[in-house]
């Protein structure tokens, strides 16, 4: 028995353009929709529903838009809505389900959780924005859809690349190691860093090549073949062991990642293990309990470590909080002034501004910016501003070369 969408290959995109003539004159009463004619795709009948004045749950001034399955059969579909810029020189407006496969249940079924016959957006776009995209008064919405391909014969079994498994076999192998570390002793306390505690000292053996590629700052601290161990202070031995294990391709246990997230972030940041730092940050974001009382403490910590995802999480929390209560409880004098920009971005995103896919970098989510930077071969570490500047510099450089 399969639960959810079966893991099959996706089809090519199918595009169905919908023309809403005289869009500016369509009724703007909330909850009133205009339906497209039926169209066929993947053996199903569909309609595009647009609410020029928004649906009942839409913010004022926002247009709602949904895709409706008109067939009494269930289907899994990935979809997005694209509105091309009229003169081709500006950015296309695009919103989709961010690569997720949506379950469209039969037409007559009721929505249960995230599954239902109709999927879309209560706050698709500002109506004033869409008015700038009209072509001779017509709003042209391209519905892009793709689904799972029909079942195919299973691929022949081929063993996966054994490199990481072989590297893990050499983890902490004293006989083949060419560097060693003495870890422990005095460790500063995490809060305030005033108290110091003694911890047992442990010796770890490693291979310089594994560190050179995965923990460059740590690799710079030691030389292959050096008899004397490199002393590592202010890191607990169990945390250092996690870091080394990760450098050999290992996966840190989820419970350990949750309980030691901040210590792992600290050490990974110190030794240049960027991907582990971001993995621990994501785990911390999932588990941290934000309140107005601890907001300043957490957001300043995020800022100090360039934890852009955590900082975005903090700003999303503050932008959705009761404004009077926030003004009374949050000590804004203790918040660095540079964070005001992040707060304004959170407010803009909450109000539905700049949400087009591929739109302004300034309103993109941190995960989107990191993905874009990674695809361009850029560093994914750093603040929102650092990521945006790096992407812009790369794009400007590409245009210059062209």
From TrEMBL:
Origin: domain of life: Eukaryota
Domain MATH per the UniProt entry, residue ranges: 13-145
Residue ranges constituting the SAP domain according to the UniProt record: 361-395
Annotated InterPro entries: BPM1-6, BTB/POZ_dom, MATH/TRAF_dom, SAP_dom, SKP1/BTB/POZ_sf, TRAF-like
Single GO biological process annotation from the record: protein ubiquitination
Short name of any one Pfam family annotated for the protein: MATH_2
PANTHER family: BTB/POZ AND MATH DOMAIN-CONTAINING PROTEIN 1, OS07G0655300 PROTEIN
Protein name: SAP domain-containing protein
Species the sequence originates in: Thalassiosira oceanica (Marine diatom)
């Amino acid at each position: 028995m399969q639960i959810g969408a079966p893991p099959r290959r996706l089809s090519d995109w199918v595009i169905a353009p919908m023309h809403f003539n005289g869009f500016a004159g369509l009724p703007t009463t909330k909850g009133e929709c205009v339906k497209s004619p039926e169209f066929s795709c993947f053996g199903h009948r569909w309609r595009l529903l647009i609410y020029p004045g928004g649906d009942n749950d839409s913010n004022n001034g926002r247009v709602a838009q949904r895709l409706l399955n008109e067939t009494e059969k269930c289907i899994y579909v990935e979809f997005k809505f694209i509105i091309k810029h009229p003169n081709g020189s500006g950015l296309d407006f695009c919103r989709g389900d961010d690569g997720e496969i949506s379950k469209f249940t039969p037409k007559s079924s009721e929505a249960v959780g995230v599954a239902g016959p109709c999927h879309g957006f209560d706050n698709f776009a500002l109506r004033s924005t869409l008015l700038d995209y009209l072509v001779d008064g017509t709003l042209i919405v391209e519905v892009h859809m793709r689904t799972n391909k029909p079942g195919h014969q299973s691929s022949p079994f081929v063993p996966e690349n054994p490199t990481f498994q072989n590297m893990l076999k050499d983890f902490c192998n004293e006989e083949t190691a060419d560097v060693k570390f003495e870890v422990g002793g005095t460790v500063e306390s995490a809060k305030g860093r005033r108290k110091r505690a003694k911890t047992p000292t442990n010796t770890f053996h490693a291979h310089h090549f594994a560190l050179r590629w995965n923990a460059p700052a740590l690799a710079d601290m030691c030389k292959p073949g050096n008899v004397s161990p490199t002393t590592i202070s202010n890191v607990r031995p169990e945390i250092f062991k996690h870091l080394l294990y990760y450098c050999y391709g290992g996966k840190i246990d989820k419970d350990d990642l949750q309980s030691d997230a901040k210590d792992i972030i600290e050490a990974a940041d110190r030794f240049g293990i960027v991907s582990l730092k971001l993995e621990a940050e994501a785990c911390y974001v999932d588990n941290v309990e934000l309140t107005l009382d601890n907001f300043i403490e957490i957001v300043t910590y995020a800022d100090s470590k360039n934890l852009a995802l955590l900082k975005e999480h903090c700003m999303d929390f503050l932008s959705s909080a009761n404004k009077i209560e926030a003004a009374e409880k949050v000590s804004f004098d203790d918040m660095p002034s540079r964070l005001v920009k992040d707060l304004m971005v959170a407010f803009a995103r909450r109000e539905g501004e700049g949400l087009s896919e591929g739109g302004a970098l300034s309103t993109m989510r941190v995960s989107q910016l990191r993905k874009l930077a990674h695809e361009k071969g850029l560093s994914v570490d750093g603040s929102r501003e650092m990521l945006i500047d790096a992407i812009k510099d790369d794009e400007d450089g590409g245009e210059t070369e062209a």
